[in-house]
Amino acid sequence: MILEKTYNASCVLCFSGGQDSTTLALWAQKAFQQVHLLGFNYAQKHAIELEQAQKIAQLLNLPLKVLDLSFLQEITLSALFANNPQKSNAPHPKNPNLPASFVPDRNALFFTLAHAYAFNLGANFVLVGVSQQDYSGYFDCRKEFLDSLQTSLNLGAFGIKEGIAFLAPFMAMSKAQEFALAQDLDGLELILEHTHTCYEGIRGVRHAYGYGCGACPACRLRQNAYAEFLNHYKQD
């Protein structure tokens, strides 16, 4: 199992300060020789996640670089942008098969920049916290997409399909299982207190599952996952 392996190598980890990427960072610290966090400011409505990302990086003693991608709101539409009042649980105006929170090609851009950063650092891996089980309807969180992008970027950078490997250890895991992994890594309280998932950027009240509005798709997913974790995985 990929989560049981250790790597005599360094990695770049796409980091948002949310549950997925923070749990991934907890695991990566144990599995890799060096971990470099890479975050993104894309004018998101929940930009508070970047403040939490900085705090978490300091708590974990990991280096964090944040790139400014705020231009995205100028060329595409998403309910996640700060300048868009649309509700995140509505259909996307350009593709009704996607939620309004979808940011076209966001993950492709994030992962491409992480690949370039890894190339520059001499890192062997790019880590991403996506899951095709709990992927909120985003097509770019699937294994098929990630494998295809890895092949294309390595062909461009090395001339062959091999080079920098993308790892998505949570691809087949649920968020309830992620809570259980955080518990095993002695990081459950870190996840509950410091990570941010809510699309609305609300952190006024801590709920059992963490902070958030409790109503947006990200909050509902996290709330349901925590309830499942309590029922099936939590250790006394």
Automatic annotation (TrEMBL):
<dbReference type="InterPro" id="IPR018317">
    <property type="entry name" value="QueC"/>
</dbReference>
<keyword id="KW-0547">Nucleotide-binding</keyword>
<keyword id="KW-0671">Queuosine biosynthesis</keyword>
<feature type="binding site">
    <location>
        <begin position="15"/>
        <end position="25"/>
    </location>
    <ligand>
        <name>ATP</name>
    </ligand>
</feature>
<comment type="pathway">
    <text>Purine metabolism; 7-cyano-7-deazaguanine biosynthesis.</text>
</comment>
<feature type="binding site">
    <location>
        <position position="213"/>
    </location>
    <ligand>
        <name>Zn(2+)</name>
    </ligand>
</feature>
<comment type="function">
    <text>Catalyzes the ATP-dependent conversion of 7-carboxy-7-deazaguanine (CDG) to 7-cyano-7-deazaguanine (preQ(0)).</text>
</comment>
<feature type="binding site">
    <location>
        <position position="198"/>
    </location>
    <ligand>
        <name>Zn(2+)</name>
    </ligand>
</feature>
<keyword id="KW-0479">Metal-binding</keyword>
<protein>
    <recommendedName>
        <fullName>7-cyano-7-deazaguanine synthase</fullName>
        <ecNumber>6.3.4.20</ecNumber>
    </recommendedName>
</protein>
<keyword id="KW-0436">Ligase</keyword>
<keyword id="KW-0067">ATP-binding</keyword>
<dbReference type="Pfam" id="PF06508">
    <property type="entry name" value="QueC"/>
</dbReference>
<keyword id="KW-0862">Zinc</keyword>
<feature type="binding site">
    <location>
        <position position="219"/>
    </location>
    <ligand>
        <name>Zn(2+)</name>
    </ligand>
</feature>
<feature type="binding site">
    <location>
        <position position="216"/>
    </location>
    <ligand>
        <name>Zn(2+)</name>
    </ligand>
</feature>
<dbReference type="InterPro" id="IPR014729">
    <property type="entry name" value="Rossmann-like_a/b/a_fold"/>
</dbReference>
<comment type="similarity">
    <text>Belongs to the QueC family.</text>
</comment>
